[in-house]
Amino acid sequence: MHIMEGYLPGSWALFWWVVALPFFALGLRSLTRITQANPELKLLLALAGAFTFVLSALKLPSVTGSCSHPTGTGLGAVLFGPLAMSVLGTLVLLFQALLLAHGGLTTLGANAFSMAIAGPFAAYWIYHLMMRLTGKQKIAIFLAAALADLLTYLITSVQLALAFPSPVGGFIASFIKFAGIFAITQVPLAISEGLLTVLVWNWLQSYTPQELELLKLIKREPQHNESV
């Protein structure tokens, strides 16, 4: 992920911009509804964005023209939904491109689609599926964060393979090459991100239970008044 500035051919860079922009527009509507209905959630929104920024800024060199790093989008997707994260994630990528030279402006659409759209949607669906199947919230959080991280890099591998198909084997051969190289660094990173996200979730449960209750992610236990 973080495909660098100018690396994608112009036609593919434009294509991913066109694909990503509708999600960003819908995400703005989602964020507006969330903040208008519950203004007290703004700090939690900021925390989700900061978590994504910090984790995704920790990059390791991987495939030529790209890099490996945690994404941090799973937490925000579980808290606020994937559309909200499409905005937060895209803004994170924009600031990283401008301030840290991670990624680029021409490739922002491609990077946003993989990290801010595909990853959060995967995290959201995985979390709710695991909650239905197991009812174990921490397992659901771990899998949502870890698998969303891995899916982000699968999508990046698809983007690179589409733009640079192999002379022998075409798209499939190129995808296997990119995904295989990414896997060396990304699998342990995804596991680490899942564990860290669970730790942050535990912290949120301890210090922001009211906000999580508003989001219907936890149920506060009824308090029993003791008669004197």
From TrEMBL:
Protein family (similarity comment): Belongs to the CbiM family.
Matching InterPro entries:
CbiM, CbiM/NikMN
* One GO-annotated biological process of the protein: cobalamin biosynthetic process
Q: Which organism is it from?
A: Komarekiella delphini-convector SJRDD-AB1
Localisation per UniProt entry = Cell inner membrane; Cell membrane
Does Transmembrane appear among the keywords? yes
The coding gene here is: cbiM
Q: How does it assemble?
A: Forms an energy-coupling factor (ECF) transporter complex composed of an ATP-binding protein (A component, CbiO), a transmembrane protein (T component, CbiQ) and 2 possible substrate-capture proteins (S components, CbiM and CbiN) of unknown stoichimetry.
Name assigned to this protein:
Cobalt transport protein CbiM
Keywords attached to this entry:
Cell membrane, Cobalamin biosynthesis, Cobalt, Cobalt transport, Ion transport, Membrane, Transmembrane, Transmembrane helix, Transport
Q: In which pathway does it act?
A: Cofactor biosynthesis; adenosylcobalamin biosynthesis
